[in-house]
Amino acid sequence: MIIPACPKCEAEYTYEDGLNYVCPMCAYEWPQNPEEEERVVIKDANGNELTDGDTVTVVKDLKVKGASSVIKQGTKVKNIRLVDPEDGHDIDCKIDGFGQIGLKSSVVKKI
């Protein structure tokens, strides 16, 4: 089996370490099988895995910056979209009365 050169610094001294290749010159690590790269799993307040399109409910009252009202506990949110976390907000959704908003997965539970 031929071990590839480092994709970052092109050094030829790479070696296998478990399921990854490692470059001793620049300390870069990459998976041997790129399709097996770790995917980020986003979980709700109860530990259930969330996916795009899920319907969730809010588990506690949430204050919304710039709004005089709050999102009440038990509010149903349909068709969520998972996004890269920005300030901890990893769910993008639309809530009636508030419009497009970002939520943290720790404050919702999957229905």
Automatic annotation (TrEMBL):
Coiled coil: none
Source taxon at top rank: Bacteria
Pfam families registered for this protein in UniProt: YjdM (PF03831), Zn_Ribbon_YjdM (PF08274)
Domain Protein YjdM N-terminal: 4-31
Domain called Protein YjdM C-terminal: residue spans: 42-110
SUPFAM superfamilies: Prokaryotic SH3-related domain, Zinc beta-ribbon
Family: Belongs to the YjdM family.
Protein name: Alkylphosphonate utilization protein
Lineage of source species: Bacteria, Bacillati, Bacillota, Bacilli, Bacillales
